[in-house]
Amino acid sequence: MPTLKSFLPARFRKDVTVIPVVRLNGAIMSGGNQFRQNLNMANAAPLLARAFSDKQAPAVAIMVNSPGGSPVQARLIHRRIRDLAQEKNKKVLMFVEDVAASGGYMIACAGDEIIADPSSVVGSIGVISAGFGFTGLIDKIGVERRVYTAGQNKSLLDPFKPENPEDVAYLKELQLEIHKVFIDLVKQSRGERLKDDPDLFTGRFWTGQRGRELGLVDDLGDLHAVLRARFGDKVKPRLIAPQRGLFGRKVPGVATGLAAGALAGIGEAGLNALEERALWARYGL
């Protein structure tokens, strides 16, 4: 026969250990709108704050599923997780779903432990820039482009101009600087767990199983099984969900009610979708 205690919410029962769970999903990009949410500091920060505010929870579980994107946003999220973990004295268990690659792996490195599925994709510790050149197209359609600048490097890497070797060399310098920041972060986070492998920081990626052998991952498993093994059969994962606005939609920020704003948002969402699709496709997803 059920007792009065069994009707109490899990967080009020001393025999149940509640573990807040945050899902960080998607390509890492600043901005976003009501039609499409990106993973960035603006929408991750409120979820993380709520998860770490649970004084009774001995740990916070974070599920990451991201092919990467903005290195700045990824590092900001990583730093916020570590700051909260230190401030609230919480252990962070990071669970990789399909992929934690590039910026997604940078976020995963914020965990005290990284647990992945054997078939997860991890790694891709590198920096990539991509674009298109439209010099032939603009000539074919008979368009004369006019650009006026103050500063000789203001039109650096202009896609409507022939590629300049000096511009490419400068971009490479920037990439190397960002790559070093990424490498240093991984080394600081993973420490002696990393194996001495020449491909580790080349941008190559691996399965979760191979990632464990290389020290990129600590263990293999899934959230529910690992939490039960760590905290007992009565552990209760509690998903920290985004707040919702009118009509049950997730609230990414300030929504516009104007038709023009909505149409612009749809167009931007379409471009973002193409960019995100390309990021996921790199890992066969």
Q: Mind explaining what this structure looks like?
A:
By secondary structure, the chain is α/β, with parallel strands linked by helices. The chain is 38% helix and 15% strand. Strands 1, 2, 3, 4, 5, 6, 7 and 8 form an eight-stranded mixed beta sheet that branches. The longest helix is centred in the middle third of the chain and has 26 residues, at 165-190.
- Count of extended strands: 8
| Count of DSSP H/I helices | 8
Q: How much helical structure, as a percent, in the residues? A: 25-40%
Order of helices and strands: EHEHEHEEHHEHEHEH
Describe this protein with a few key phrases.
8-stranded mixed β-sheet, 285 residues
Summarize this entry quickly.
The protein is an alpha/beta fold and 285 residues long. 38% of the residues lie in helices and 15% in strands.
Give the topology.
Layout: E1 18-25, H1 41-52, E2 59-66, H2 71-88, E3 91-101, H3 103-108, E4 113-116, E5 121-123, H4 135-140, H5 165-190, E6 205-207, H6 208-214, E7 219-220, H7 223-231, E8 236-239, H8 259-281
Parallel strand pairs: 1-2, 1-8, 2-3, 3-4, 3-5, 4-7
Antiparallel strand pairs: 5-6
